[in-house]
Write a structure and sequence with these properties.
The complex is a heterodimer of chains A (96) and B (487). Chain A is mainly alpha-helical and 96 residues long. In chain A, 35% of the residues lie in helices and 4% in strands. Chain A has helices at residues 7-17, 23-40, 75-79; strands at 85-86, 89-90. In chain A, strand 1 and strand 2 form a beta hairpin. The longest helix of chain A is centred in the first third of the chain and has 18 residues, at 23-40. The radius of gyration of chain A is 23 Å and the shape is flat. The model of chain A has no long low-confidence stretch (mean pLDDT 91). By secondary structure, chain B is an alpha/beta fold. Chain B has one domain: Amidase signature (AS) enzymes. Chain B contains 16 helices and eleven strands. Chain B has an eleven-stranded mixed sheet, with helices on both faces. Classes of the chains: A mainly alpha (96), B alpha/beta (487).
């Protein structure tokens, strides 16, 4: 395997991905990611010098419009899906 | 012939003529679901009460002459990644296990405007990540042709529901082949439209630059009719394209004279099952006999589509799935210390293994130091793949090949080796990267009795060409039902 993923990398990616992996999942993730990257490295066979990265297949331009509210007040229905609610707001653990 | 064997358009005609009532059709579908779900498990949610209520309302509107669409009154199943107001929408994930949307996705809304009756929501690979519908948090769906085999994925529930005769048609979504591959495995017809043709508003995003909603049905006529109904320019989807040519049913013409069809040699090499190869080449022969000009050519870059896809799709997924954090909707972990621990525990407990695998890979390829080497490299590869297709379409009206290299594998054989599973998408994935339309139509069964799918790929906005050729090909065959629908 050409791509060896270290414990530090898995930990760092876990922070970025906001995932907490247990020891077993970490080992599996190291193996899986290494194998996937080995496979993805196949792209290096291609000479892409001077090729622009393509995000959209069609040319897209900004379209401007007035910022007018078109939907009604849906706060009750929206909050009904929240795991925890307090005084018409999403309740989250203390942050500061 | 049982009612459930009718196509959507056939049923729509009978409803219009007053031969079948909408309630009768809806009850027939609900009874079929009740009888077959034990064997197939196509649905996450069945909305019996809601469907019957809709049926009565739709019947009134048909009687009053307010609903005249060919699909008015025809019961449909919706993949569980499209939001439906008031109806559970889970993406087959524990993290959305209790999510009841407050709005309806645009494609479903377009169906409702035409008088569709929504039966329920179909099973899928969790967040559409998978090729077998085995990564669902709510159990695997089984193939109606042989319940020891997978239905394909990720729209496996939608395709199995159509094949089993649990609905008259369904909506699926296709990010890397998720409509065409399960259509092929289940012996049904499915279209992935040109990117931007169907609004993605209300479709829970996986890889936004690749996702498209499309129809799954018994035949090409149904698919063209459904696509015509769901296609719309939508200001709520910034990538929606304004098209004037969405009268897809005008292409239902049995004529391929002079059509130029290219067969990529690189689609018929190593890894392709000989029985699939034979069936697909026989289909090409049928089109040739009808007057099409069929030629082999070299498409090139085929083997680079899958690695490019996994970088782009996983990068987009890692960003799209950040919204599932246990704050606004869905699952929240029970015990936690502080906000960040709550996020992490919620996501780790709420997502399944394949989803986590793709979020990790996506986060990695977007991280500083790797962004250029992986993400930008993949986007450059995508540009080259698009160029290869552009070149092919200078010469050909469409490209013909298999939808998948094999027929449906057995349950439990795919997930242990992800890269092998990913390779099964080799013929479908580049179509999403290039934004092209593709259709899968049944073209035979293998010696195990499992269906084989023929794929036709068109240039951007050229759905009509592939619909016409698929329709012409379909006229050369007898429709075949799965054992569960034939009985």
């Amino acid at each position: 395997m050409a791509n060896v993923i270290s414990d530090e990398t898995i930990e760092y990616v876990g922070i970025l991905a906001k995932l907490e992996l247990n020891k077993e999942e970490q080992e599996r993730a190291k193996k899986d990611m290494g194998e996937m990257l080995d496979y993805i490295d196949k792209l290096n066979e291609l000479d892409t010098t001077g090729v622009e990265p393509m995000s959209h297949v069609f040319p897209v331009n900004n379209v401007f419009r007035e910022d007018v509210v078109t939907n009604g007040d849906g706060h009750e229905a929206t909050l009904a899906n929240a795991p925890e609610v307090k005084e018409n707001a999403f309740l989250v653990p203390k942050t500061v | 012939m049982s009612l459930m064997q009718l196509t959507a358009v056939e049923l729509g005609k009978k409803i219009k003529a007053g031969e079948v009532s909408v309630v009768e059709a809806t009850e027939a579908a609900l009874n079929a679901i009740e009888a077959k779900e034990d064997k197939v498990n196509s649905f996450v949610t069945v909305d019996r009460e809601g469907a019957l209520k809709q049926a009565k309302e739709v019947q009134k509107k048909i009687d009053a002459g307010e609903l005249t669409s060919p699909l008015a009154g025809v019961p449909v199943a919706i993949k569980d990644n499209m939001c439906t107001e008031g109806l559970l929408t889970t993406c087959s994930s524990k993290i959305l296990g209790n999510f009841v949307p407050t709005f309806t996705s645009e494609a479903v809304l377009n169906l409702q405007k035409a008088g569709a009756v929504i039966l329920g929501k179909t099973n899928m690979d969790e967040f559409a990540m998978g090729s077998t519908t085995e990564t669902s948090a709510f159990g695997e769906t089984k193939n109606p042709w042989n319940t020891e085999h997978v239905p394909g994925g990720s729209s496996g529930g939608s395709c199995a529901a159509v094949a089993a005769g649990e609905c008259f048609y369904a909506l699926g979504s296709d990010t890397g082949g998720s409509i065409r591959q399960p259509s092929s495995f289940c012996g049904v017809t499915g279209i992935k439209p040109t990117y931007g043709t169907v609004s993605r508003y209300g479709l829970i995003a996986y890889g936004s630059s690749l996702d498209q909603i499309g129809p799954v049905a018994k035949d090409v006529t149904d698919c063209a009719t459904i696509l015509e109904t769901i296609a719309s320019h939508d200001l709520k989807d910034s990538t929606s394209v304004e098209r004037k040519d969405t009268d897809f049913t005008s292409a239902l013409v049995d004529d391929v004279k002079g059509m130029k069809i290219g067969i990529p040699k690189d689609y018929f090499g190593e890894g392709l099952d000989p029985e699939v190869k034979e069936a697909v080449l026989n289909a090409a022969k049928k089109l040739e006999e009808k007057g099409a000009i069929v030629e082999e050519f070299e498409l090139s870059l085929v083997e680079y589509a899958i690695p490019a896809y996994y970088v782009i799709a996983c990068a987009e997924a890692s960003s799209n799935l950040e919204r599932f954090d246990g704050v606004k909707y869905g699952y929240r972990t029970k015990e936690y210390e502080g906000l960040h621990n709550m996020y992490k525990k919620t996501r780790s407990e709420g997502f399944g293994a394949e989803v986590k695998r793709r979020i990790m890979l996506g986060s990695f390829v977007l991280s500083s130091g790797y962004y250029d080497a992986y993400y930008l490299k993949a986007l450059r590869t995508k540009a080259l793949i698009k160029k290869a297709f552009d070149k092919a379409f200078e010469k050909y009206d469409m490209i013909l090949g298999p939808a998948a290299p094999t027929t449906a594998p057995k349950l439990g054989e795919s997930l242990s080796d992800p890269i092998k599973m990913y390779l099964g998408d080799i013929y479908t994935i580049s179509v999403n990267l290039a934004g092209l339309p593709g259709i899968s139509v049944p073209c035979g069964v293998d010696s195990k009795g499992l269906p084989i799918g023929l794929q036709l790929i068109g240039d951007c906005f050229q759905e009509k060409k592939i619909i016409q050729a698929a329709y012409a090909y379909e006229q050369t065959r007898e429709p075949a039902f799965s054992p569960l629908l034939a009985e």
